[in-house]
Amino acid sequence: NRSHAAIQGLQAQLPIPVGTTYVASSALPAGAEASTDGVHFAPMPLLQTVRLADGRQQQQAVPLEAYRALRWRLGALPAGKSAEVSARVHVNAVPAAAAVRMPAAGR
Fold it and tell me: What is each CA distance from 6 to 10, 13, 80, 82, in whole angstroms?
């Protein structure tokens, strides 16, 4: 915060690119919220309601591959201070059919 006054209600948002998977428990500081659409956030782990074969409903964890953004509610940031957030992602394997073929040199 390079201003002369504190910033109130500070939030930081970190997108999780398609083709990557959030690494569980890697968000720092703790308390980050997650989103599957970058708009609606909830505490982690994200849960979804699924209907079982017998018709009952059950809460299940949303797969980490579906997370598209993280958000931290940092609150107040005093003048002259900074805050840092971080998270790790795993780059998903590229299917062989999607790999780009490059022409061989000298052809």
Answer: 10, 19, 8, 11
Asked whether the whole model's pTM tops 0.70, one would answer: yes
User: Does residue 27 contact residue 88 with C-beta atoms inside 8 Å?
Assistant: no
- Sign of the dihedral defined by the CA atoms of residues 41, 46, 52, 58, in that order: negative
Q: CA-CA distance, 101 to 99, in Å (whole number)?
A: 6
Residue 101, amino acid:
R
Taking CA atoms, 16 is separated from 3, 40, 55, 59, in Å, by: 29, 14, 34, 24
CA count, 13 A, side-chain hemisphere, 41: 17
Model confidence pLDDT, tens digit, residues 64-86:
999 999 999 999 999 999 999 99
Token pair 């059919």: residue = 97
CB within 8 Å of 63: residues ≥ 6 apart: none
